[in-house]
Design goal:
The complex is a heterodimer of chains A (174) and B (100). By secondary structure, chain A is mostly helical. Chain A is built from eight helices and no strands. In chain A, helix 2 packs antiparallel against helix 3. In chain B, 54% of the residues are buried. Classes of the chains: A mainly alpha (174), B mainly alpha (100).
Chain lengths: 174, 100
């Protein structure tokens, strides 16, 4: 049963990723990206990461993707007929070869490492969100604060970049 | 039980797809979407290793990745709006001036 769900989420997310890269119209690409994000969140459920599933659906599909679609519809871009880069045919073969090499080296890796203490039974006792919260606000507090400062800087930077410089001048003239 | 390598393979394929999208698409917004695909591939990898190695660290770094993706989307889209306001095409191969 788990295999059926895994293969569904994996195949659909890969197909949606290929559609994002290959579809012509940007809004269709955005909707394919939505399908990819939702199915990746399904993979998170398969991996017992319920909190990340919720964050993925709320932040990625709910906020980031809506931002993309807003900008797409705001700008009303017209797509050229030639929507791939001119050197695309030369890039496809190296990309396929690189992917094959990546999968080949993955197949040889033993994937062993030091086991931690967060076993599935230990997480199930208090829940995934509780386990993440305890770890985040004790060991990773500094990183958490840095992310907060980063997001504040990103918001300020986005506002400074996107605000219209001309409109202030015209208001002063009037 | 699904092996860890299956998740890592899915992540590798998604990463290659996103990298190809960054390289071959002309529309800047689609390039940013491909970057999101790459970040999602990294997140799958982190969460899969976090699950199979019984550690919480991967999930926490995955949360940080999602926060960074949000910041990157905001800044990238603001840059697109500025470029579009300057009557310059949003195709990446036609954006060749830092000043206009």
């Amino acid at each position: 049963m788990a295999f059926v769900f895994f293969s569904y989420f994996a195949v659909v997310s890969i197909v949606a990723g290929i559609l994002v890269v290959s579809l012509k119209h940007p809004v269709q690409c955005g909707l394919a990206l939505l399908a990819l994000l939702l199915h990746v969140s399904g993979l998170f459920i398969m991996l017992n990461a319920e909190f990340l599933w919720a964050v993925q659906v709320i932040v990625y599909a709910g906020a980031i993707l809506v931002l993309y679609l807003f900008v797409l519809m705001l700008l009303n871009l017209k797509t050229d007929d030639r929507y791939f880069h001119a050197k695309t045919p030369y890039l496809l073969a190296p990309a396929a070869l690189g992917l094959l090499y990546l999968l080949f080296s993955l197949a040889q890796s033993p994937f062993r490492g030091a086991k931690g203490d967060a076993t599935p039974t230990a997480i199930l006792q208090s829940g995934d969100a509780h386990a993440i919260g305890i770890k985040m606000f004790s060991e990773y507090l500094l990183q958490f604060e840095i992310i907060g400062v980063f997001l504040t800087g990103a918001i300020v930077g986005a506002i400074v970049l996107a605000k219209a410089p001309k409109s202030i001048e015209t208001r002063r003239d009037a | 039980m699904i092996p860890l390598s299956a998740y890592v393979a899915v992540s590798a394929v998604l990463f290659a797809t996103g990298l190809l999208g960054v390289l071959i698409r002309r529309n800047f917004i689609i390039v940013l979407m491909s970057v999101e695909i790459i970040l999602n591939a990294a997140t799958i990898n982190l969460v899969a290793f976090s699950h199979y190695l019984d550690s919480m660290q991967g999930q926490i770094v995955a949360l940080f990745i999602i926060a960074i993706a949000a910041g990157e989307a905001a800044i990238g889209l603001a840059i697109i709006i500025v470029v579009f306001r300057g009557k310059i095409s949003t195709n990446v191969d036609e954006m060749n001036l830092l000043k206009w």
